[in-house]
Amino acid sequence: MADRLRADAQRNRAALLAAARDVFGEHGLDASLDEIARRAGVGNATLYRRFPTRQDLIAEVFAGQMAGYVQLAETALAEPDPWAAFVTYLTRLFEIQATDRGLSELLVTSGFDEDARLAELLATARRGATAVIRRAQHAGRLRADFTRQDISLLMRANAGVLRSSPDSDAWRRYLSLVVDGLNGI
Asked: What is the pTM of this model?
């Protein structure tokens, strides 16, 4: 019987994480925990037993996606053309924002401090972003005054575009304008 309970607990945990990914992706980090439990097909007590705080749930849900965020810079650094790498990196960040509201909010807030795993992934991602930027600048393609902090500003601005525009592809137009303005040539 203990094995059965363990299997049930594993299924409940997996269902909670899948539901949380969906609900946070649709509604952001302040989404209803009751809705997550409902979609997972479990009670609130099960959710809180597995994830005592919202932050615990957020950290578990987004750790894998943050690893993907780290991979963006690694992929960009493998691209032979530094400018194409930078543009692709920025495009992918904006795509993430457009498709996952929860991750978008996490990337533009300072919600990493409470979880060492997320904080380390963010620090690694920031180092990678800095390398992508410097490479494009050394190639003479990216404005010399652009910094990693500017990516955060652009993402905050893009979050506003995503929230306020009825056109779901408005972020692409915004990105095009940004890239044209950043081109160092």
From this structure: 0.82
